[in-house]
Amino acid sequence: MKRALVWFRQDLRLHDNEALLDAIASADEVFGVYVFDARTFKGKTGFGFPKTGAHRARFILESVTDLRKQFRQLGSDLIIRIGHPEDELFGLAKSLKSHWVFCNRERTQEEVFVQDELEQRLWSIGQEIRCSRGKMLYYTADLPFPVTHTPDAFSQFRKETEPITPVREPLPFLVDKLTALPIHLDAGEMPCLKDFHLSEPAESFVPGGETAALERLNQFLWETRSIDHYKESHNTFSGPNCSSHFSPYLSQGCLSPKMVYWKVKEYESDFGSNPSTEALTHVLLWRDYYRLMGKKHGNRIFLRHGFRDREVTASRDWDLLQLWILGKTGIPVVDANMRYFRRFGYMSDRGRQLVAGFLIHDLKLDWLLGAEYFESQLIDYDSCSNYGNWQQIAGIGPDQREERNYNLYSQAKRYDPKGDFVRSYLPELANLGGAAIHLPDQAEKRVLQEAGIKLGTTYPYPVIETDRWI
Q: Which of 102, 124, 265, 310 has its CA 20 to 30 A from that of 47?
């Protein structure tokens, strides 16, 4: 009897899971494993932020719980361990006398280290690791160029791929029964947030897991047809259907990008294509682009001088950084987005661009401070997309674009024209009307007094001069 372990990582699903289906095709008995890596769930970033904050940890716990439930429905169980994957998987492979460990390959340094360590240990007992590629829309074998020749400009990447590169159909959903775990094998208990020294968030953004992901996909496309408004609404700062909210599911692999792509194509066949359906598939291309940039350029995605190897002069003023984190900079559109972020672990794409541009170009802080804080807090954290986007805004990314330095007053008026978002998350400004909501320091004293606002007391003075935005 040939046995295989399937190591689940950022691929927490049964649909379109190449590693899982390869294991089933190769072995007589297949057992699924998820390891909560102590370095990821208990460790710190370079600047001392928790590597995995409470919001993302909650989402992952829910996603793994959902996967375990599905394994049990198929007659097996998902093996749960806490520790270092290279240790835990090696121990399981040795005790179960398996032949292979299957997984979907990851590309950035910490994940590659674990893959390589596990591979070396498995070789020592005559076993091997087999890696598949389960994160991207495209298969690298289908690209019209080798990964090392991927265009650095996104527009060129899109031009060279979109018209000719096929998006393969998703692999089938696993419905066959799986092998029950051996009686002597302890499946392991699911941890809770307290095990990682984290507190339960007061509010959750979206429920984790493949089941919830597929429900959201169906709701956004067919039940509400919110996709028809995606192009206009996805930059809106908040709202249940202002954006697809697929990103947390894509980041943890609860939802396959190929599944999203082909469901959108199915929708287009029913109702026709439109700029919004095209915009959604465009976002999937951006995910592939950043992942390919991470593979092509390696660790430069995490380095201060970026893809362009350009020296950056910036401060590491921790007091100023804390004002940004807490939403107390005196710039309402920034503060509201940052408080929303602390509350939900999520922020709209437009909000992310504005707060990142403010940190880099207005506060003159090191972009790595912001990128690491986002890594800690984002419910939809993806290493390549997160660090790639921060480098783009800093002007050191692979795409040779100008630095993104925003007029926050005009951006706020455009994307929160009535100030409703700001009032919702900055209650101290709730009574301020008109355009003054976005720059209270420029309002007349009488207006501020009537609204019950005293700058420096009820709401901070801005940490920068705002005159240039008017």
A: 310
Per-residue pLDDT, 350: 94
- Cα of 159 vs its chain's centroid, Å: 25
Q: What angle do CA 359, 365, 366 make, to 5 degrees?
A: 110
Q: Which single residue is written with the structure tokens 């008995």?
A: 29
Q: Name the one residue in this structure whose structure tokens are 């240790």.
A: 87
| Rounded-to-integer distance, Cα 334 and Cα 460, Å | 13
DSSP string for 154-217? HHHHHHHHTTT---PPPPPPP-S--PPPPTT----PPP-GGGGT-PPPSS-SS--SHHHHHHHH
CA distance linking residue 455 with residue 120, whole number of Å:
61
* Residue 449: its H or E element: helix 445-450
| DSSP state letters, 310-335 | -----B--HHHHHHHHHT-SS-HHHH
Entry pTM: 0.95
CA atoms within 13 A on the CB side of 119: 12
Neighbours of 218 (CB within 10 A): 12
Do the Cβ atoms of 249 and 218 come closer than 8 Å? no
The CA-atom distances, in angstroms, between 297 and each of 29, 106, 109, 140, 345 are 39, 15, 12, 16, 28
82: helix, strand or coil: strand
At residue 240, does pLDDT exceed 80? no
Contact between 122 and 90 (Cβ < 8 Å): yes
Distances (CA, A) of 43 to 40, 57, 58: 5, 13, 16
pLDDT of residue 367: 96
Instruction: Record the tokens describing residue 467, joined without a space.
Output: 């005159």
Decide if 393 contacts 354 (C-beta within 8 A).
no
pLDDT of the residue at 403: 60
User: Among 32-41, 227-236, 255-264, which is the least confidently predicted range?
Assistant: 227-236
For all residues of the chain together, what is the average pLDDT?
94
CA 269 → CA 67, 262, 263, 266, distances in Å? 31, 10, 10, 5
What is the distance in angstroms between the CA of the first residue and the CA of the last residue of the chain? 73
CA distance 227 to 277: 6
**H/E element, 128:** strand 128-132
What is residue 221's predicted lDDT score, i.e. its pLDDT? 96
| CA 137-208-16 angle, 5° bins | 30
Q: What is the pLDDT of residue 234?
A: 87
pLDDT, tens digit, 9 for 90 and up, residues 302-331? 999 988 778 787 999 999 999 999 999 999
